[in-house]
Design brief:
- The complex is a heterotrimer of chains A (about 280), B (about 325) and C (about 525).
- Chain A is an all-alpha fold and about 280 residues long.
- Chain A has 11 helices and no strands.
- Chain A has one domain: Orthogonal Bundle (MetI-like fold).
- Chain A is about 75% helix and about 0% strand.
- The longest helix of chain A has about 35 residues.
- A two-stranded antiparallel sheet of chain B has the order 1-2.
- Chain B is mainly α and about 325 residues long.
- In chain B, strand 1 and strand 2 form a beta hairpin.
- Chain C is of the alpha+beta class.
- Chain C has a 7-stranded mixed sheet. Chain C has a 6-stranded mixed sheet with strand order 14-18-13-17-15-16, with helices on both faces.
- In chain C, helix 8 packs antiparallel against helix 10 and helix 13 runs antiparallel to helix 14.
- Chain C is globular, with a radius of gyration of 24 Å.
- Classes of the chains: A mainly alpha (about 280), B mainly alpha (about 325), C alpha+beta (about 525).
- Chains in contact: A-B, A-C, B-C.
- The interface between B and C is large, with 50 and 55 residues.
Chain lengths: ~280, ~325, ~525
């Protein structure tokens, strides 16, 4: 308990991280309250097309080329974005930790094979991989999330492996082994909890990366047409950058702020976990 | 040394094979084959013609036969024939590869120059306004989606200010001598390379800063200072070289993502490179070209990774490959 | 910079289009100047090859027609002019036609153009590969002498129809001495085609542009007027606008730039927007209903759903006024066959609801029934139309599952798997309805796996009958009457109908002359285009 309070205090001391956390809370707040603030389906055509932002209370952020409310799409898009970020990074973390842990713990040819496998996924250009998977499975939010998760697990695998390697040969592990504990139990109950903190830091960055991936996929036109997505808004607004460039600008700023928030939090987590690097 | 290099390079072969197999499977699982696309576009009506084409495109063979055929032809350095472009795959790729290479190199150059300089300045003037500004900038450019940055920069520099062209790689239909042509390409290169490179510049800046701050506190630096060397000399001769190591590693690891990033940037800026070729080919299920690009791309990345590893070994004598 | 109201915008767009016709009629009388480089583009992407024998879509059509020519061309006022054929004369029974060919034409490699080339093209290329069912009746092609060819048919062939085919997309004349004995589809010359046309391919830089040089030995010398023609491709419309403004682009066809940019360019008086030149390639956006599915095979349902669609909204908002709500099955620009005297489906959601109730689909638990809507994602506009249609149908309590697949998946789902209840697609029809329009309604138009034809599964003996009569009716007036009957019938049955007629526009610098004067300008050789600089 005190460790947690300590950790929180260290985190809070980093003002940038706090700002990031606050920003993320704002995004989450929008995501949660979107159905109340904007009860109509965000993809409904509700007004005149290409109304500029800040001109009317009805459409605070303006309307797009079809006449849809951008504020509604941005608010509902927050849900899409956060859900994708969360689940994609969960998928990536699950795959990455499993592979990294297994590789490090068993070593030898298992390690070799799994690391080659990791390298394979690292070599294929990520975006093309995601695009192909989305094409195969279909343009639904669930599949896009899965695709992004499948493609972004490699850094987590590497980090997990590195952490496991340092912990594997420590005394407490050898003690467990001499006690007759099974391998999996050791991995899950003893090593993993100690290896997790840096992995969590990385996972927060993976969330950010997943959000950027999804926005690129939607921008290229392969997103889910039933769902309001920030990336798709940017893509839609491309032909109108001369007259109505706000259609591109607004969702882009939203993506940037969210990813920014996650990065600041990630930094804060990192600093809080590694106090020796704290005095810079 | 030679043995280590050879071993490292040999590891590339199974990697490339794995890339081929995975992508072959993926492309074939995607709904709508190349055959469907081409026959639909060309409005083939007669069943005999459909059968002839099926045989011509090789889709009448079972999938595993097609895979084995393909692997064999790659080993004999034949990347196949693209019926969509009516030309050998290698030719199609090689024609568009230079554009992407130029873009990637320019982006990486911008990323290194801007990023490393920013990182050094931030570290040297740590905790001052400069440091804060640079860190803020780094974090912004890291967070902004590159395609969005590209569009916003286009709005500002091309549409509003009119300083730079909106897209494409060169002005066409105009005869230019070598100097004019170079300048023309550079003008067109400015926005896409910057849009692509700023993201990496941000990472290099942060890593460089952190790395320098860590190295500066190490013993050998203090020794150098104690010996009476000026601060600048210390920074350049000792700190910089060691601090660059993580950046070098990062660079190697990121080559793969730069190729992926170029797909989007090439789309935004109508840049005629293999990023757009790859995207078009995935969309039209043109698997010979997709596989060709990925095979070559993964080869380049694998070789680059190997080179980075070997370079790292030279730069830091403490590191040895297992 | 404030928002442009829809009405302001439409007013200026109309003014721009009207203004565009004025300088050109004056300039037609001026003496053409020789010289210069014409840089052109169109509203789509680079083709997969410069010449795609079976067709391949608009992009290779654009690039190949500068090099390869046809026997005739169709002007805006529906007159056929000679290109490689100087005379086309039907026999008394209309079962054979004598074609006299131009005598001084030659291929780019120096070989003379002769009747053998036409015989080869007709038998080895048009009939089996590119012509589709339009040349079903062709049985014999003979070279009577080096410059005369006789076409023989097994049924009477209307004159307008045959001339239309000979001036159409699928009858480019190809050189026998190059293609004979080889596989026409995969011949490497398709990447740098050799033809009789005014331009020769100089260089194709993939991903960027193709450059053509004047054919100094062109049969219509001193044409072409321009020294060099460059066709460039951009990936997005905003880049093309910028290219126009930067002086990097002279002319571009088929909606090259975003509609809001059009008045901005034309107001400077340096550019014109021309809507002529598309009547023989009349694009429409269509809605089709799968006749194999329970709900949509019910005619009353189809008609009801058509009432739920606000076509004016689509025309105004999605196409920025550059389209019109369709009337009947024929494009409004078709001066020969278009008629307003057909059943109409005005936007009336209440009427739609009533009709659906009457058809036996009342609202139960908030929904009448569920449909899968597939909107082919090859045009940005189809994305928006798909989303609008979903909303429009939901407004009459129909549940809609919307997918907007990419091109390859769309082609497969709509034309091979027939996996849709309602589909949004496009096609470009010629003035002659056979076969490009009729192939969507006849039973023999159903060919699984071939695109842009009857995918609904609609099969009605009355329609087949009418079309068969239209194919052999040689009297023009009777033909128009038959087509009218066809139009009324299919508009009533409504298996597939256009919802908007597109009005594509060509944007050109004001000093480009003689553009947009043929019925399919994009597919003409551009020999007579000149630069007034």
């Amino acid at each position: 308990m005190t460790a947690t309070i300590d950790f929180a205090r260290r985190f809070a001391r980093n003002r940038a991280a706090l700002a990031g956390f606050a920003l993320l809370l704002v995004v989450i707040a929008f995501a949660i309250t979107a159905p109340w603030l904007f009860p109509r389906p965000p993809l409904r055509i509700v007004g005149r097309p290409e109304v500029w932002p800040f001109l009317s209370w009805r459409f605070p952020l303006g309307t797009d080329s079809l006449g849809r409310d951008i504020a509604a799409m941005v608010a509902h898009g927050a849900r899409t974005t956060l859900l994708i970020g969360l689940f994609a990074s969960l998928t990536a973390t699950l795959i990455g930790v499993t592979i990294g842990a297994t590789a490090a713990y068993f070593g030898g040819w298992v390690d070799e094979a799994l690391m080659r496998f990791t390298e394979l996924f690292q070599t294929i250009p990520n975006l093309i991989f995601v695009l192909t998977i989305v094409l195969i499975l279909g343009q639904k939010i669930a599949y896009i999330t899965l695709a992004v998760g499948i493609v972004t697990w490699t850094p987590i695998a590497r980090l997990t492996r590195a952490e496991f390697l340092t912990l594997r040969d420590r005394e407490f592990v050898q003690a467990c082994r001499s006690m007759g504990m099974g391998d999996v139990r050791i991995m899950l109950r003893e090593i993993l909890p100690n290896a997790l903190p840096p992995v969590i830091v990385l996972a927060s960055l993976v969330v950010a990366g997943a959000i950027l991936f999804e926005s690129a996929v939607s921008f290229l036109g392969l997103g889910d047409p039933d769902v309001s997505s920030w990336g798709r808004l940017i893509g839609d607004g491309r032909t109108l950058i001369r007259t109505s460039w706000y259609i591109c600008a607004v969702p882009g700023i939203a993506i940037m702020l969210t990813v920014l928030a996650l990065n600041l939090i990630g930094d804060g987590l990192n600093d809080a976990l590694n106090p020796k690097l704290r005095d810079r | 040394m030679v043995r280590i290099v050879a071993r490292r390079l040999a590891q590339i072969v199974p990697l490339v094979l794995g890339v081929i197999v995975i992508n072959f499977i993926l492309i074939h699982l995607a709904p709508g084959s190349l055959f469907d696309v081409m026959t639909a576009e060309q409005q083939i009506t007669s069943p005999e013609m459909l059968e002839k084409l099926r045989h011509l495109y090789g889709v009448d063979q079972p999938a595993w036969v097609q895979l084995v055929d393909y692997i064999w032809s790659v080993l004999t350095l034949d990347l196949g024939f693209s019926y969509r472009q009516n030309a050998p795959v290698l030719d199609v790729i090689l024609q568009q590869m230079p554009a992407t290479l130029i873009l990637m190199l320019a982006a990486i150059a911008i990323a290194l120059i801007v990023g490393v300089t920013a990182g050094v300045i931030a570290a040297v003037r740590v905790n001052t306004i400069w440091d804060n500004l640079i860190s803020l900038g780094a974090v912004f450019f890291f967070a902004a989606p590159s395609f969005w940055l590209g569009i916003m920069m286009t709005v500002l520099f091309a549409v509003k200010l009119g300083w730079l062209p909106v897209g494409g790689m060169r002005e066409i239909g105009v005869d230019e001598n070598a100097l004019q042509a170079t300048f023309d390409i550079l003008r067109h290169l400015a926005l896409p390379a910057t849009a692509l490179g700023l993201f990496y510049a941000a990472t290099y800046a942060r890593v460089m800063r952190a790395s320098m701050l860590e190295v500066v506190r190490l013993d050998f630096v203090r020794t150098a200072r104690a010996k009476g060397l000026s601060r600048t000399r210390v920074v350049i001769a000792h700190v910089l070289r060691n601090a660059l190591l993580p950046v070098v590693t990062l660079l190697g690891l990121q080559l793969g993502t730069v190729l992926g990033g170029s797909v989007v940037i090439e789309a935004v800026f109508s840049w005629p490179g293999i990023g757009s070729l790859l995207f078009d080919s995935v969309m039209s299920r043109n698997y010979p070209v997709v596989l060709g690009v990925l095979v070559l791309g993964s080869l380049v990345v694998a070789v680059a990774n190997a080179s980075v590893d070997l370079l790292y070994m030279r730069l830091d004598p403490r590191v040895r490959l297992r | 910079m404030g928002p442009l109201s829809r009405r302001d915008f439409l007013a200026t767009a109309a003014a721009g289009a009207a203004a565009s016709t004025l300088p050109l009629t004056g300039a037609a009388a001026a003496t053409p100047k020789r010289g210069g480089t014409l840089t052109a583009s169109w509203g789509g992407f680079e083709p997969q090859a410069l010449f795609v024998p079976p067709g391949g879509g608009s992009s290779p059509y654009f690039t190949s027609t500068k090099v390869l020519e046809r026997l005739l061309k169709l002007t805006n006022d529906l007159k056929f002019e000679p290109v490689l054929a100087t005379e086309v004369t039907p026999a008394q029974d209309f079962r054979s036609y004598k074609i006299k060919l131009r005598e001084n034409a030659s291929w780019h490699d120096g070989e003379p153009f002769t009747a053998d080339d036409v015989v080869f093209s007709a038998l080895e290329y048009w009939k089996p590969i590119s012509g589709g069912i339009s040349l079903n009746a062709l049985t014999a092609v003979e070279a009577v002498d080096p410059h005369t060819v006789v076409l023989g048919f097994n049924a009477p062939v209307p004159e307008f129809f045959l001339r239309s085919v000979l001036a159409g997309r699928s009858t480019l004349v190809i050189p026998k001495h190059i293609y004979a004995g080889k596989n026409i589809l995969t011949h490497p010359v398709n990447n740098a085609p050799i033809g009789t046309g005014p331009f020769k391919v100089k260089e194709w830089v993939r991903g960027s542009h193709v450059e053509y040089l004047r054919n100094e030995k062109y049969w219509d010398a001193p044409l072409p007027y321009v020294d060099r023609l460059v066709i460039r491709w951009w990936r997005d419309p905003a880049s093309r606008s910028a290219a126009f403004e930067a002086g990097q682009l002279d002319i571009a066809t088929f909606n090259p730039i975003p509609a809001p940019d059009i008045p901005r360019l034309t107001e400077t008086k340096k550019f014109v927007a021309d809507t002529r030149g598309f009547s023989n390639s009349a694009w429409v956006t269509t809605v089709e209903f799968n006749m194999r599915r329970d709900v949509t095979k019910n005619r009353a349902v189809r008609q009801a759903l058509l009432h739920a669609i606000d076509r004016q909204f689509i025309a105004d908002t999605v196409f920025f006024g550059r389209a019109r709500p369709s009337i009947g099955a024929i494009h409004f620009s078709n001066s020969m066959f278009f008629s307003k005297d057909v059943p109409d489906y005005p936007f009336d959601p209440k009427q739609a609801a009533k009709l659906l109730d009457a058809a036996g689909y009342p609202v139960k638990g908030g929904s009448r029934f569920t449909v899968s809507l597939v909107s082919a994602g090859w045009f940005e506009e189809n994305v928006k139309i798909g989303q609008y249609l979903k909303q429009a149908l939901e407004d009459v309590d129909v549940t809609v599952n919307l997918t907007i697949p990419d091109r390859a998946t769309s082609l497969k789902r709509i034309y091979t798997d027939y996996d849709f209840d309602i589909a949004v697609s496009n096609n470009a029809g010629t003035i002659e309805l056979l076969p490009t329009t009729t192939v969507f309604y006849t039973t023999d138009g159903i060919v699984k796996g071939a695109a842009f034809r009857n995918a609904t599964g609609f099969s009605d003996a009355r329609v087949d009958d009418l079309v068969a009569k239209i194919a052999v009716e040689t009297d023009d007036k009777k033909r128009v009457a038959l087509v009218h009957a066809f139009n009324q019938l299919v508009t009533t049955e409504a298996p597939i109908l256009p919802i908007v007629d597109l009005e594509p526009v060509t944007i050109a610098r004001a000093d480009v002359r003689n553009h947009s004067i043929t019925a399919d300008f994009m597919g003409e050789s551009w020999a007579d285009v000149w630069l007034d600089r």
